[in-house]
Amino acid sequence: MAEVINLNRARKQAAKQAGRKQAEANRLTFGRTKLERQQSQKNEAARVSRLEGHKRDSAEKNDGEV
């Protein structure tokens, strides 16, 4: 004969398993160490600084137009 199961317990267990799968996917997507985040911010700041340094000033543009 088949084993009797509690449907509420089975439903909760299935929901918990789905939550674990979602958590694993989130860890792969968003999970970075503090050092990795700091290095990323440092690299982004350097990139922005380099980009800003290569921009032309508006005064230089106006000199050629007059």
Task: Chart the SSEs and their pairings.
Layout: H1 7-30, H2 34-53, H3 58-65
Please characterize this protein's 3D structure.
The chain has three helices and no strands. The protein is mostly helical. It has one domain. The radius of gyration is 28 Å and the shape is rod-shaped.
Structure classification: mainly alpha
Report the uncertain regions.
none
The CA-CA distance between the termini, in Å, is 96 Å
Number of strands: 0
Overall shape: it is: rod-shaped
Q: Tell me the domain tally.
A: 1
Sheet-strand content, in percent, reads: under 5%
What proportion of the residues is helical, as a percent range?
over 70%
Count helical runs.
3
Short description:
With 66 residues, this protein is an all-alpha fold.
Task: Pick out its properties.
66 residues, mainly alpha, 0% strand, rod-shaped
